[in-house]
Design brief:
The chain is α/β, with parallel strands linked by helices and about 220 residues long. About 40% of the residues lie in helices and about 15% in strands. The protein has helices spanning about 20-35, 50-60, 65-75, 95-100, 125-140, 160-180, 215-220; strands at about 5-10, 40-45, 80-85, 110-120, 140-145, 150. Strands 1, 2, 3, 4, 5 and 6 form a six-stranded parallel sheet that branches. Strand 4, helix 5 and strand 5 form a beta-alpha-beta unit. Helix 1 packs across helix 6. It is globular.
Amino acid sequence: MRNPKIVVITAGLSEPSSTALLGERLADSALSRLEGTGLTAQVETISLRGLAHGIADYMTMGFPSGEVGSALDTVRSADAIIAVTPTFKAGYTGLFKSFWDLTDDDDLVGIPTIVAATGGTARHSLMIESSLRPLFAYLHADVVPTGVFAATDDFGADSSLQHRIDRAGLELAERIAWRSGATRAERAPSVEKETEPKAPSLAGGRGLPPLKVTPFDQLLNGEA
């Protein structure tokens, strides 16, 4: 069985980058969830910051440079994708979009994908649904249900960010395992489904009283 390859694409513009850190944490979570399935995934990271000139040349000249061509080949060989961008003007960055503009329409068909973003404030968190998910739906990627947005304040003691990371990592790992024919990915305690509360019992006079139904003709005659 061939070990799968997870490709992390980050569009962070600073160094060090919180965007790159989020991508790394998502990849680590997916790897940990794959333990016990018989799969040992490899992770390759593509930083778009270093490819900016090559991406612009490809878009204007019509042919890729060596590094951009290699990056596109890496995406085409991926078994799973983690795509992370900073938030600019309530959406993904131009650099991030330009890279995906260079891919063919069938490069990501059915590929398990996590979409994630960073931003200065949680007010931008809806860009996951308004910008990222439609883009990867167009590319026909298999986007996991949990998108991860990390505001600046989330990088710290807040455990809710790690909870979202672990949930997305599990969802990606389950899809990788299924596509590879391996056993189900391990579910971490932090992302266990909460037990739903039981409905109130109606036995013995407890719970809600029986519903009283009055026929419509009695209502018309004022007999209710």
